[in-house]
Design a protein that fits this description.
about 900 residues; alpha/beta; disordered N terminus
Length: about 900
């Protein structure tokens, strides 16, 4: 059936997701538990396996190339599992063989043909044969008929590349699936997971992978590192994947300790250094793909530092890679500030069109800003007609919900690839016709399910399938992924397809209105809503209206067709209105709604759709294995919480500015002036600001919903006129805790910001053995807490202080409470000495950052790790704990604070209870 938004929402629970969606389907036995590790390579026994086994008895590989051997091994693995008996690779093509061979076809293309007594898989080269082997296995996984099989396919472009943003310390920039899968310091030792990684990406046609972060460490190019990378390249090579590296442009300076004092691409010494390094790499990795370079962007070095152009910098490297068949990919993502961000990279790169050499490729993000859920297609597509160009898409969900919000991005990517530039004859070429390849910033990590949440793998698969064939529809791609990942249960397929295909626009509806974009803290995790942090940056919101007027310059970067559409308030598509224009809240959209009413309604409707996603998935219990069903259900639970947070924040923000009442849903708004800090074991008067967005006056009785009977709460009643706000306090006494607690405010009516509020509870200083507020020398203190700043050196009488070099202080400002606004931290380890009282005590330390993301903090004593935090998004805090023993007379403890290599640890408070 065709899934549309109308069928999705029709009748609420009576729509596509209803319990009786597909009546008459047979009841399926509960499948065996899985954990997602197999991704779409699930070779489960087939129902007609006995008949197929008689037709597919063995495999013959014609040739001895490593990639052909991999094709044979994969066929044996897959067929043996699906047919329930060994299907070996053997010499000689007897009856009922599966023959893998190379023939006269286009590079990387393949054919699969059912002959009278065999199946022939023929590739235009060894890679093509491997891709054909995987496609044949997928054909069988989807239970497609063997008879009459006659399939031919080839990729649309030669560069189908993953970009890993993995660092030497194991962290992943914008990664949400654990640590890097690459254990750099173990190389040349190899892990089996490297083989499974290569199998998975090769199975969907990826042929190149950049294994390290574009914000590159020069250490990846050290000679002692290259031997290990050569071993990794050897694994990838067997599966037709070429290894690439991101290169730091200042590597000649860094790796020679300044003996090469510059990185000027015109400097002979610099040219020689790169030539020698490239020669060295190709001696070790003969099929090395080339370099990816981010230069003169966000603090990275580059040729502009020496008065050269981006083309100058790219060509110097490209020329040295060319004799080896290598390529140089140069990112066009450059910007300086929000005011001209949208046109900045066009202004820099368009004048360089035609200056990049033949083996240099400019890699351009899909939009002009930064992977927002909705933004116009980058005008550089069509603006570089004489330059090789790749499109860069972000598979990892940096701005689209991390591994918490389901956001299937293939529908968005289809709009990008199908965008007609109007730069050539007629409306063409499209972006897909402009580019010579596709790069995807990948979402893979060392989590067991690879992508951080089970459904996130659909984006990995979808990117690769579009890179192979951008003409495939989102419906075709997601159907393939569902069938390969969950099997052929029709109800699972129908329900999950509806959820997946609606998820992008649903995410957009409860986050970013009308193309506005960038409503998260710019220097943080890009996860939590924070429209105030980009006020007068990505949007100019006032009491009269909102948006960003870009009409003076930006639309003129496109062909006349789009200039006339984007530059016109009447013609501009509503979904990009607030990207292109500033408008009053009362401006009428093509739907007939005002802008502000659309903002209200879309956010409430989007949240309701997420609730329905969760209910629909819940009804699939028993049709999906229990382990994966429970895991995905837990993700939907978290998704609901965060969708509600976005709805509440954005609706409250725009009502707060406009003060225009909704003609539909009414609500209260709850704000927390102290950002959610409570003192455990003491009476608190929690300050709240209540705003009445009902159309009538409301008398509100507010209270904290108690977590359990140990919480003591009271109520406060206040009358609030329509459109007015009231500041109140509500009484609450938490138990003596050092913890983070999710609380809610009860008001008896719909209240935005009332649910799932995370409060930091810090214990009453009078009931602690030691209570330290750690940060700057002059920031506010939690009542009763002692200050520890970098100037607080060890003092035996005081009983605490730094030993040796002190750390650095940071203060994130008055928007945060006294405990969380400031902290200390550093890259090297530092030592805080404290006096422990006699007996056993509980140490608790507050870790987090109200600004950027917070790396792990590790606390140890005498070489033993006492406690450690995980990576935390900006604005998120946690307490870490350890039990210590002061012995019969008390003692001093030297607490060593550290992080992972080259990462900044944080400490905001320390208490002993």
């Amino acid at each position: 059936m065709t899934i549309t938004r109308r069928t999705l929402l029709a009748g609420g629970a009576a729509g596509v997701f209803a319990a009786g969606l597909l009546p008459g389907l047979p009841a399926f036995a509960a499948p065996a538990d899985e954990d997602g590790y197999d991704l779409w390579l699930r070779y489960r026994p087939l129902p007609d396996r006995d008949d197929l086994a008689r037709q597919l008895s063995h495999i013959v590989v014609v040739g001895n190339h490593a990639v052909l051997r991999s094709a044979g091994a994969e066929l044996s693995r897959g067929l043996s599992a699906m047919l329930g008996r060994p299907v070996p690779v053997q010499d000689g093509a007897g009856k009922n063989a599966v023959v893998v061979q190379v023939g006269d076809l286009a590079a990387e293309g393949f054919t699969i043909k059912r002959r009278a007594d065999r199946v022939e898989i023929t590739g235009g080269d060894e890679r093509g044969a491997l891709y054909g082997a995987f496609r044949f296995l997928q054909h069988l996984q989807r239970q497609r008929p063997l008879q009459g099989l006659d399939l031919a396919d080839r990729p649309a472009s030669p560069l189908r590349m993953l970009n890993h943003w993995d660092n030497l310390n194991g962290s992943i920039e914008r990664g949400y699936a654990g640590k890097s899968i690459f254990a750099w310091d173990e190389l040349p030792g190899l892990r089996e997971r490297y083989v499974d990684y290569a199998r998975a990406i090769a199975s969907v046609g990826v042929n190149n992978t950049v294994v390290n972060n574009v914000n590159a460490s020069a250490d990846f190019l050290r000679s002692e590192r290259l031997t290990g990378l050569a071993a990794l390249a050897g694994v990838l090579r067997q599966w037709g994947v070429r290894l690439w590296l991101s290169a730091n442009y200042a590597a000649p300076i860094t790796l020679t300790a300044g003996q090469v004092p510059v990185a000027d691409p015109f400097d002979p010494g610099v040219q020689k250094w790169w030539q020698d390094k490239i020669d060295e790499i190709y001696r070790l990795i003969p099929d090395f793909g080339g370099f990816l370079v981010k230069a003169n962007s966000e603090g990275q070095p580059g040729p502009l530092d020496y008065g050269r152009t981006h083309a100058d910098g790219a060509n110097m490297l490209a020329d040295r890679l060319a004799p080896y068949g290598g390529k140089l990919v140069w990112r066009s993502f450059v910007h300086e500030g929000f005011s001209d961000w949208a046109q900045y990279q066009y202004n820099v790169f368009h004048p360089l069109d035609g200056q990049f050499h033949e083996n240099a490729v400019v890699q351009t993000k899909n939009g002009p800003i930064d992977f927002q859920v909705r933004e116009p297609v980058n005008p550089l597509f069509g603006g570089l007609p004489r330059t090789n160009q790749m499109v860069e898409l972000e598979i990892t969900q940096e701005y689209t919900g991390h591994a918490t919000h389901l956001c299937y991005l293939v529908p968005e990517w289809k709009t990008v690839l199908g965008f007609p530039t109007y730069q050539g004859p007629g409306s063409g070429p499209t972006v897909a016709e402009v580019v010579t390849g596709m790069a995807g910033v990948v979402n893979i990590g060392d989590d067991r399910d690879w992508t951080g949440y089970q459904l996130g793998a659909a984006n990995t698969h979808g990117f690769a399938r579009l890179a192979w064939n951008p003409r495939l529809s989102a419906d075709e791609i997601v159907t393939e992924w569902i069938e390969l990942t969950f099997g052929l249960d029709r109800q699972v397929g129908s329900v999950l397809k509806a959820i997946m295909l609606q998820s992008w626009e649903t995410y957009e509806s409860y986050t970013s209105p009308l193309g506005m974009g960038y409503l998260t803290y710019p220097l943080g995790a890009h996860f939590l809503p924070d429209p105030a942090s980009t006020h007068n940056l990505s949007h100019y919101t006032t009491s009269e209206g909102t948006g960003f007027d870009r009409t003076a310059v930006f639309p003129k970067l496109y062909a006349d067709h789009w200039r006339d559409i984007y530059g016109s308030l009447e013609n501009c598509p509503d979904e990009l209105l607030l990207f292109m224009h500033w408008v009053p809240y009362t401006h009428r959209l093509k739907s007939g709604k005002t802008v502000v009413q659309h903002i209200y309604d879309s956010h409430f409707d989007g949240y309701e759709r997420v609730l329905e996603f969760r209910r629909a998935w819940g009804r699939l219990a028993g049709r999906v294995d229990a382990a994966r069903h429970a895991d995905i259900a837990a993700t939907f639970d978290a998704h609901v919480v965060e969708a509600e947070r976005w709805r509440d924040t954005i609706v409250s923000y725009f009502y707060g500015y406009s003060r225009i009442l909704s003609t539909g849903t009414e609500w209260l708004q709850v704000e927390y002036p102290n950002r959610g800090l409570l003192i455990g074991g003491a009476a608190n008067d929690l300050p709240l600001v209540l705003t009445n967005a009902f159309r009538t006056a409301q008398t509100v009785t507010a209270s904290v919903r108690p977590v359990d009977s140990s919480w003591k709460v009271g109520t406060t009643t206040v009358a609030i006129e329509s459109g007015a706000s009231a500041s109140i306090t509500v009484p609450v006494t938490p138990p003596l805790l050092t913890d983070l607690v999710d609380l809610a405010i009860d008001t008896g009516r719909t209240a935005l910001g009332a649910e799932h509020q995370t409060f930091v509870v810090t214990p009453d200083a009078a009931q602690c053995r030691l209570a330290l507020d750690i940060g700057t020398a002059d920031s506010p203190l939690v009542p009763g807490y002692a200050r520890v700043s970098p100037g607080t050196t060890w003092d035996v009488t005081r009983g605490y202080g730094w030993v040796g070099t002190a750390p650095q202080p940071r203060d994130r400002g008055a928007a945060w409470d006294a405990l969380r606004r400031d902290f200390v931290g550093d890259y090297p380890a530092r030592t805080l000495r404290i006096t422990l009282p006699p007996g056993k005590v509980r140490l608790s330390a507050l870790v987090g950052d109200g600004g950027p993301d917070c790396p792990p903090t590790i606390i140890s004593e005498a070489g033993t790790v006492l406690a450690a935090s995980t990576d935390l998004p900006g604005g998120v805090f946690t307490w870490i704990h350890a039990d210590l023993d002061g012995g019969p007379a008390g003692r001093t403890a030297d607490l060593v604070l550290d992080s992972e290599p080259d990462r900044f640890w944080h400490l905001g408070a320390l208490v002993l209870t």
